[in-house]
Design goal:
Shape: globular
CATH class of the largest domain: Alpha Beta
Distance between the termini: 34 Å
Number of strands: 17
CATH architecture of the largest domain: 3-Layer(aba) Sandwich
Strand content: 15-25%
Radius of gyration: 24 Å
Number of domains: 2
Length: about 550
Amino acid sequence: MGIIKKLGAALLGAAILVSAAFPLIGCVKNIDDFNYDFTETDNLIEYSFFAHNWNMYEGQDNDRILKAIEQKFNVRIKIQGAPWEGWRDRLSTQIGANEAPDLFFFLPDEKAYSEYVRKQQVQPLDGYIEKADAENLKAMLSSNQFKDATFNGKHYFVPNVYAPSNHVILVRKDWMKQWMDARGYKNKAQPETLSEFADMLKYFTEENPDGTELSTVGMTASQEVGWFDNFLSSFGITPNWTEQGGEYVWNGVTEGYKNMAQYFADLYKKGYIRQEFYTQLDTEKEDDFISGRAGVMITNNNAMIDSVVSRMIKGTLKDKNVDECLDVILPPSSDDKKFEGRYAAYDGYWGGFNISNTAREPMRLVRILDYLMSEEGQMLRLYGIEGVHYELNDKGEVVPNLSERREEGQNRFMTPNPDTLEPAGKYSIGVYFGENRFEIDENNDLHIIRDTTSFLNRALVDKANTFIDEKPLNYRNLRYVIDFDSTFYNNFNKLIDDTEILFIMTVSGQQTYEKAYKDYEGRLVADKYETLKKEINEKAEK
């Protein structure tokens, strides 16, 4: 069954590029000299599938979803995995020893990946897709989003597609109402400008909005300063690379980034931001907010919002109306309204699946991947077997059958809420092939079909998603520029880290911005920033 084509607005993307270092072994071949193996038989074949954290998966023999796929393609699937800490090393060792899993997950924008491609340790998919008439894969990889996600013009991986997401601003709505009443704001839904946002944090810090002896602070944060990307739009810049003067420049070198760092440095100096933020873990930040000690927290949307709300219902907000106490808000606009507050939406994909050069009958693996991207395959790999693991209600929403899901065994279905531990979420193996359903419209744009039916607190989750979907701040076309060598990714990763240092040193008051930036300029040279910028602009232009 092919992918349905529907009308809609394009969702362009964003990403965080990361890198990892480990040795690679293999015989170097010419990337252009790949010889496709179109062999197909009717024989039963055992394939190994590998992804991080699949080591936690239990009960493969009784997995009815996996069995349905095995029977359809006459294969035996052996699930392999390794813990998050060290999964790359494990995979590297197997690939280097010429014992790679037949199908494995990896991150195509890591520095190691270009070496896999160069050494032909992963297979290009285009020839197989054409030969197999794999219409779903063909539509997906030729979409506007993924047509250029290639190395040397060839597609090597099937992206793990997911919905636009980001960290959203979660706020104590009851405290925010007190602030509005105190300031005489009658028709505002939230602070609209940077000055109003700062004033709200001041109120939360100084006016005891909780009405208890508990000491409160305006905003809590953690050492993961990527959370502050939510405010980039307020200062006229975009995530990572920003258009300026007809070219892309790194946002850390812009006047906008300087203004953002100094804005938060001022809030920190006045005590409106948790003073220990740069040493706090995310869990400590969450405890800060959940316990009622902070009025604003930046957090992940979807499951994290659901978890935070559920924990507060059982604790701080036990005897209160949650709808009146919690809200998500948009980032504030600049004071002159020149720059509109928008969420930096990270969307598109995170990693993808590759066929190793040692896999037998790669054509059959391509047919499996094609099926998993079809309408029928998407429903199976995300929700299981209809009538067994789920039903569709009259709105077309997925209603999980918990009793049948419990029969599947440990870690088979995700438990979106940590308090209930009910297997109400998606199939834990299937989400690695894409966390969300998708369709492709007649304009060749790929669109995500969101599903929040498994969450207990859907209202806030849906509101956050609406903010992200309606006005995302994207990376433009740069999201899908990945054809760089390992040196590029190594230096790019250092550039990200060095920019975070600039932000932390400035905001925490350990250095003035001028001093921190002078040190930063030295690191830019070491990171070969000018070379990175040149390569980015050359790729973007193409």
